[in-house]
Predict the 3D structure of the following.
Amino acid sequence: MQNILVTGAAGQIGSELTTALRKKYGSENVIATGHKTKPEKPLLESGPFHFIDCTEIDTVAEMVKKYKVSTIYHLAAILSAVAEATPQLAWNVNMIGLYNVLEVARKYKCSVFTPSSIGAFGPTTPLNRTPQETIQRPNTMYGVTKVAGELLCDYYFKRFRVDTRGVRYPGIISYKTLPGGGTTDYAVEIYYDAIKQKKYTCYLKKGTYLDMMYMPDALKAAIDLMEANPAKLKHRNAFNVTAMSVAPENIAAEIEKIIPKFTMDFKIDPLRQAIADSWPNNMDDSAAREEWGWQPEYDLESMTEDMIENLSKKLKIKIH
Ligand code: SER
């Protein structure tokens, strides 16, 4: 049995990915690790959990040795808005952390899943039907670390045959763990505020289209790619994947269908607006579809229904 290590397991994707991996591969075989944030009880109690610091290579190596890990899902990272506020921290966590994971993977022969992002693109990238291979000149620290990370993963495969794989995630929407400090966070906040107070103040302008995806599809992308037949992978890292391209008013309109009193106004955050404007409106994910059968299940309508149903249960608020 292969053992799996998840870094960033207390984070938005990590918390749900750990649960999905435990269900699939057995609770004891999935080692969850976080840095400072204590995860929710179910995750803490359903299998091994340790605090580590990916910027300290020994703490990563210790986990891999101790648990005979063969696959690492490396999710520990700083998101875009926090990265702009603290670029030095972002470089350290996103680059040194990834380098350490890849070095440990090289030494102990692990495969590695690393998420890249729509943030790996920039203002000179074609923003519509953004191709798999195109101009990548991001002007944020987050973007710098994501492009460098994609290249580093490619290099470790080419030079050391480390089985590196990854996707460029769009904004991820979920009702369990909140994202922390990203540009796409509005698309999660809007559902919380719609249920709690029937109104939301959006920090991005109308017409700001970005790729988004519901969490079950994001988990499926990671697991399917790691299980894909390597002979079929022409790309390995940084596959464009998307499920929908939406602007704030599109989500608001969908919410209104279920919560008719919902209203949205705007108070633009110039930092996050500038970041969003430099990212694709919609990515072309045909390489992922062709090479490993990527296919999302949720669109805006089905995601909104599921989000509102589950979030209102979680918040214990009746919407009707
Ligand atoms: N959701 C991320 C962010 O907004 C994008 O990768 O930073």
The longest helix spans residues 87-108. The chain has a mean pLDDT of 97. The chain is about 45% helix and 15% strand. The first strand starts at residue 3 and ends at 7.
